[in-house]
């Protein structure tokens, strides 16, 4: 049911933000994350804050959209009363869980509440995650007609025994079909993959990459499997059912992914994310009507996730959702029952919050921006950190030409050792 919430200060029941938030939020774009905490089954590796029907303690899934709408209204009121500048929403992201377990009308209801509260910026990016077996062609058309622009499919693997280890229940043969349905609806398509599953060979991973590339998605994410304590997979590894993931094999898998994706016309823009160039992207039949003219390469990146890495403001709606506005962070109560109780009583669902000091914010800024291609200006680093640049170039961890242009850009080796780079810069 998800990892424990972080420690922090008590959050006020009215949700009001400290006075510093108004000043620090000025000029930052604003996004909204909507967490839908429901899944049909729990995947063995998953540590997200999600719940199957047997874990809901009497909460009804059908009531959730209305509760989320109430939090949107509370959020708009809190920002106004906290003196935060009004801003249209640049990005909206529905994550989970499986947002598309809800009827499309309920996702549309939540999106419209965001638009009513703040307005959607011109060209706003609106994404939902989806499992391949949770949507059909009509569902995707209904989302596109309501203003969704993007769908991210949890493919994870094309290899049946890998999916079985991960407890993924979808048929890998269905993924190309749902990707085509999304494209026919005029939606941009992202595909998520996981590598390093116990028992997965380099050949298995290559098969998954080939299957993903054959679908020509606009965007592709490839994440190394993290075995989280408390999960079913962690227990299986501890008891010897599956072997411990091999770090060297995972490095080989990452290098293979980067080589295959680069040769297919994708550019990495964050350590685990690649976007297709606009010139190579397949045309969508409804592109002019739904998404405007052809977009530049950068528009196939996940702008919502970039907002996290760039330290922008966002409000997280739903159980366990995290928010960040004007340097203040907070997180909601985890269980849907506790969340519903707070929301229906008119109280903020926030369980705790924190306002990191300047040193902590700087460490976080470097940690996040270093992962983005050319995202960390050298001139903004402390003097001691700038003295590390020559050594990082010599060690093959950052690109020397990018450094001459004034930016930290990780090499392939640097991406594999990103944490070590950050430690030397902080």
From TrEMBL:
Keywords: Chaperone, Heme, Iron, Iron-sulfur, Metal-binding, S-adenosyl-L-methionine. It comes from Subtercola boreus. InterPro entries: Aldolase_TIM, Coproporphyrinogen-III_oxidase, Elp3/MiaA/NifB-like_rSAM, HemW-like, rSAM, rSAM_sf. Residues 24-267 form the Radical SAM core domain. GO terms for biological process: porphyrin-containing compound biosynthetic process. Belongs to the anaerobic coproporphyrinogen-III oxidase family. HemW subfamily. It comes from the Bacteria. GO terms for cellular component: cytoplasm. Pfam families: Radical_SAM (PF04055). This is Heme chaperone HemW. One of its GO terms (molecular function) is coproporphyrinogen oxidase activity.
């Amino acid at each position: 049911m998800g990892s424990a919430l972080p420690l922090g200060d008590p959050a006020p029941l009215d949700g009001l933000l400290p006075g510093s938030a108004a000043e620090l939020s000025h000029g930052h774009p604003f996004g909204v994350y909507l967490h839908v905490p429901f899944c049909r089954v729990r995947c063995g590796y998953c540590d997200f804050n999600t719940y199957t029907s047997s874990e809901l303690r009497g909460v009804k899934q059908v009531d959730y959209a209305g509760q989320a709408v109430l939090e949107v209204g509370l959020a708009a009121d809190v920002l106004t009363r906290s003196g935060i500048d009004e801003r249209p929403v640049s990005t909206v992201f529905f994550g989970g869980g499986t947002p598309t377990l809800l009827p499309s009308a309920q996702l549309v209801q939540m999106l419209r509440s965001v638009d009513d509260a703040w307005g959607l910026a011109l060209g706003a990016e609106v994404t939902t995650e989806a499992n391949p077996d949770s949507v059909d062609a009509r569902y995707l058309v209904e989302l596109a007609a309501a203003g969704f622009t993007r769908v991210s499919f949890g493919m994870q693997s094309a290899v049946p025994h890998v999916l079985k280890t991960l407890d993924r229940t979808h048929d890998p043969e269905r993924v190309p079909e749902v990707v085509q349905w999304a494209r026919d609806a005029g939606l941009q398509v992202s595909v998520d993959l996981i590598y390093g599953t116990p028992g997965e060979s380099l050949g298995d991973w290559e098969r998954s990459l080939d299957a993903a590339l054959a679908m020509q998605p606009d965007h592709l994410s490839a994440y190394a499997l993290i075995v989280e304590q408390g999960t079913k997979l962690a227990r299986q590894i501890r008891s010897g059912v599956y072997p411990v993931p091999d770090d060297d094999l995972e490095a080989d898998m990452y290098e293979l992914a980067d080589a295959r994706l680069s040769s297919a016309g994708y550019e990495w823009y964050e350590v685990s994310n690649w976007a297709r160039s606009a010139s190579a992207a397949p045309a969508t039949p409804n592109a002019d009507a739904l998404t405007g003219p052809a977009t530049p390469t950068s528009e196939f990146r996940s702008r919502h996730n970039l907002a996290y890495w760039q330290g922008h403001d966002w409000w997280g709606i739903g159980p366990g959702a995290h928010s960040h506005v004007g340097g203040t962070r907070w997180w909601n109560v985890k269980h849907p029952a506790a969340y519903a109780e707070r929301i229906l009583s008119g109280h903020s669902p926030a369980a705790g919050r924190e306002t990191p000091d300047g040193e902590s914010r700087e460490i976080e800024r470097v940690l996040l921006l270093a992962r983005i291609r050319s995202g960390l200006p050298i001139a903004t680093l402390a003097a001691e950190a700038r003295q590390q640049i020559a050594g990082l170039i010599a060690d093959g961890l950052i690109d020397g030409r990018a450094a001459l242009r004034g930016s930290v850009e990780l090499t392939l080796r640097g991406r594999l050792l990103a944490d070590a780079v950050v430690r030397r810069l902080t």
